[in-house]
């Protein structure tokens, strides 16, 4: 059901946003070229069939109740909320949302179909963006709308409880779920939309309409720099930068993202006198991603530290290309090989005994790094399945028509993963714990298969 939903959503979005189909075509071409050039190395972070089929979507909702309903729909597809992202703090402009990502968490499920949906919720209670009057009006508007029909939610609950649906019911679920994320033809109240747009284009996209929709659907590519060049060559306007780590000669880590710019899409508008006129809104764009190795908390701290140095050096040398500064920093401070990342505890790997391990009667060494170095064990990188709040905010900002407004003299409303868990009605999972669980399970298997006593230590953060 998850694979079918992702495929149907992709087909629907391609019909609504034709440039997305171009993006998918170019991504596939790049992936095929990389596979031809690199062979098996191209599949080190996932099989080509997984990478080619892989998508992540992005949606936006307005209330905890709507978010809870989204959780029920995605729960039917084996997708769980993972990670807490506060884009209010990650963005320089007004992006009044907090987010999580719904995705599979089991390794086998991820390998079968890793569809994930980055889901943002509006924060009307934050006085930096919304005064008391606008908050009251916004919350009343959101309370009056229905994003998801009861039939869809009932089928979702059945699918989650039974872990399947009969074929006819599954078909009905998929039809209703895809329809819920189509762009609505209902006229937009121009005055209300513009009221919110003065605060934030993101707020208007969420709270200025009576429905939700897919904001972008993201294919995965093996060479995002080459894709950027090819899309530009086709005359498609891309945003200015590729968000995330720089292109460099060392291992790919975390996530790199870019997109084509939001398109002006025709929308029906209702004027204050009730007349319907034609207009256009820029809210949807075409994002693409390249995924790397998941970093541990220590590795992520190093990444964030390098970003801080990058900001500082770029502000001192505005004429120097930001990418060149980043590349020099990475080559100076980031380990240049997977083996070094593993040895320093900066990234997550799964481990398995090598088929061609030493058979000379010697006993295996006692540490993971020595086991790898001496050929007893192979280390395989764990793919980063999650998101970077600063990169997500950067993509949002790059596609906004204005900066919006925020009153930083006001104290922001506090949200965290615990609050979000309560709002969504289920635990928001810690991505670090999920990666560590994968790594530790593999270390336990290595210890058992090699007869290590004491066993290899687990518990990486």
Topology:
Layout (H helix, E strand, L loop, with lengths): L1 H15 L1 H21 L9 H6 L1 E7 L2 H12 L4 E7 H4 L6 E7 L3 H6 L3 E7 L9 H13 L5 H13 L4 H14 L7 E2 H10 L1 H7 L8 E4 L4 H10 L21 E6 L4 E6 L5 E6 L4 E6 L5 H20 L5 H12 L4 H6 L5 E5 L14 H6 L3 E5 L7 H10 L18 H8 L6 H20 L11
Parallel strand pairs: 1-4, 5-8
Antiparallel strand pairs: 1-6, 2-3, 3-4, 7-10, 8-9, 11-12
How would you explain this protein's 3D organization?
It comes from Streptomyces flaveus. Belongs to the 2-oxoadipate dioxygenase/decarboxylase family. This protein is α+β, with helices and mostly antiparallel strands. The protein has two domains: 2-292 and 385-429, 2,3-Dihydroxybiphenyl 1,2-Dioxygenase, domain 1, CATH 3.10.180; 298-380 and 440-450, no CATH class. It has 19 helices and twelve strands. The chain has helices spanning 2-16, 18-38, 48-53, 64-75, 87-90, 107-112, 132-144, 150-162, 167-180, 190-199, 201-207, 224-233, 297-316, 322-333, 338-343, 368-373, 389-398, 417-424, 431-450; strands spanning 55-61, 80-86, 97-103, 116-122, 188-189, 216-219, 255-260, 265-270, 276-281, 286-291, 349-353, 377-381. Strands 2-3-4-1-6 form a five-stranded mixed beta sheet. Strands 5-8-9 form a three-stranded mixed beta sheet. β8 (265-270) and β9 (276-281) form a beta hairpin. α8 (150-162) crosses α9 (167-180). The longest helix has 21 residues, at 18-38. It is globular. The mean pLDDT is 91.
**What is the CATH superfamily label of the largest domain?**
Uncharacterised protein PF07063, DUF1338
Tell me the major beta sheet. Answer: 5 strands, mixed
CATH third-level topology of the largest domain: 2,3-Dihydroxybiphenyl 1,2-Dioxygenase, domain 1
Counted beta strands: 12
Residue share in helix: 40-55%
Shape: globular
Radius of gyration: 23 Å
Average pLDDT, all residues? 91
Amino- and carboxy-terminal Cα gap: 33 Å
- Strand percentage lies at 5-15%
Output the number of helix runs. Answer: 19
CATH class of the largest domain: Alpha Beta
């Amino acid at each position: 059901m998850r694979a079918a939903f992702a495929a149907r959503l992709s087909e629907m979005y391609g019909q609504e946003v034709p440039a997305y189909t171009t993006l998918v075509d170019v991504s596939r071409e790049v992936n095929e070229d990389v596979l031809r050039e690199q062979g098996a190395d191209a599949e080190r972070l996932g099989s080509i069939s997984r990478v080619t089929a892989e998508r992540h979507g992005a949606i936006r909702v307005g209330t905890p109740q709507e978010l809870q309903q989204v959780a029920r729909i995605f729960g039917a597809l084996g997708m769980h909320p993972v990670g807490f992202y506060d884009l209010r703090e990650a963005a320089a402009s007004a992006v009044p949302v907090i987010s999580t990502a719904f995705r599979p968490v089991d390794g086998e499920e991820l390998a079968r179909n890793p569809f994930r949906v980055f889901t943002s919720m509006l924060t009307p209670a934050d006085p930096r963006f919304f005064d008391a009057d606008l908050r009251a009006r916004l919350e009343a508007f959101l309370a009056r709308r229905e994003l998801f029909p009861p039939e869809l939610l009932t089928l979702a609950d059945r699918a989650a409880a039974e872990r399947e649906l009969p074929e006819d019911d599954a078909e009905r679920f998929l039809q209703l779920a895809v329809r819920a994320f189509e762009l609505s033809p209902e006229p937009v109240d121009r005055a209300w939309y513009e009221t919110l747009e003065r605060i934030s284009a993101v707020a208007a996209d969420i709270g200025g309409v009576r429905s939700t929709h897919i904001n972008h659907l993201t294919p995965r590519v093996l060479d995002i720099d080459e894709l950027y060049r090819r899309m530009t060559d086709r005359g498609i306007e891309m945003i200015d930068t590729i968000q995330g780590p720089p292109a460099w000669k060392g291992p790919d880590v975390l996530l790199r993202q870019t997109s084509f710019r939001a398109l002006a899409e025709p929308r029906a508008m209702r004027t204050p006198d009730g007349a319907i006129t034609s207009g256009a809104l820029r809210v949807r764009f075409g994002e693409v991603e390249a995924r790397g190795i998941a970093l541990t908390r220590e590795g992520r701290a190093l990444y964030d530290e390098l970003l801080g140095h990058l900001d500082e050096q770029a502000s001192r040398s505005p004429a120097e290309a930001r990418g060149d500064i980043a590349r020099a920093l990475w080559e100076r401070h980031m380990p240049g090989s997977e083996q070094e990342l593993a040895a320093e505890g900066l990234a997550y790997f799964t481990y398995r005994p090598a088929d061609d391990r030493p058979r000379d009667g010697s006993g295996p060494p006692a540490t993971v790094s020595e086991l790898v170095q001496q050929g007893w064990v192979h280390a395989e990188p764990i793919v980063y399945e999650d998101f970077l709040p600063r990169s997500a905010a950067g993509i949002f900002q790059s596609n906004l028509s204005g900066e919006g407004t925020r009153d930083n003299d006001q104290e922001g409303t506090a949200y965290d993963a615990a609050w979000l868990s309560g709002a969504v009605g289920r635990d928001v999972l810690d991505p670090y714990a999920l990666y560590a669980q994968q790594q530790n399970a593999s270390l336990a298997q290595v210890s058992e298969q090699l007869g290590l006593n004491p066993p290899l230590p687990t518990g990486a953060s």
